[in-house]
Known about the structure:
Elements: H1 2-9, E1 14-18, H2 26-35, E2 40-44, H3 50-58, E3 64-68, H4 73-81, E4 87-89, H5 94-103, E5 107-111, H6 114-122, E6 127-130, H7 133-136, H8 138-146, E7 153-156, H9 165-169, E8 177-179, H10 185-189, H11 193-207
Parallel strand pairs: 1-2, 1-8, 2-3, 4-5, 5-6, 6-7
3-phosphoglyceric acid binds next to strand 8.
Amino acid sequence: MSxxxxxxxxxxxxxxxxxxxxxxxxxxxxxALSDGGIRCAEVTLRTPASEDALRAMAEHPDLVVGAGTxxxxxxxxxxxxxxxxxxVSPGLDTGIADRCRSLxxxxxxxxxxxxELMHALKLGRTAVKLFPAEQLGGLDLLNALAAPFxxxxxxxxxxxxxxxxxxxxxxxxxxxVGGSWITPAALLDSGDYDGxxxxxxQAVERSRP
Length: 209
Ligand code: 3PG
């Protein structure tokens, strides 16, 4: 349900999508994001360090941290044990949907087509990740899907730049926008958390109407 995500987002409309190769980065990164005004983040489970990084980031008192790139139900369960408050997958998976329902954790399935969106709605998932948004047609795709599915709420992610973000956020069916541009590998690798704080603050500023 989109209300679950509204509550988790608590006013913020940007979800940084984060890939960490070392859990040691997690705490300073969480602090930098929080200092920049970010309230919600997705940690992708793409590296051996991901689960530990998720656990460490989830400890931050001012961030709602979810797990991304979750590919099956067992992974969803481990992510929730590690502190994930929501679960995101690049596509829709009924096993993850069932497990998240029984765990009482919101599930944000990736959808790219009208058929996937119909499936998500049937499962009661009115909030979806539109992925990969820019590559599939960007705002034109969003407009085309939002028109027939008036109950759907979208979190477009994939290829979205800070310049494009405000255009998505202006759409009434968009809850928030996700993207990796706030936590680029170059800044993470060099430990430039001040640079990340600045990117976060700029994104938060641009996200305001
Ligand atoms: C994701 O999993 O959401 C994407 O990798 C984020 O897309 P981006 O890197 O193009 O912002």
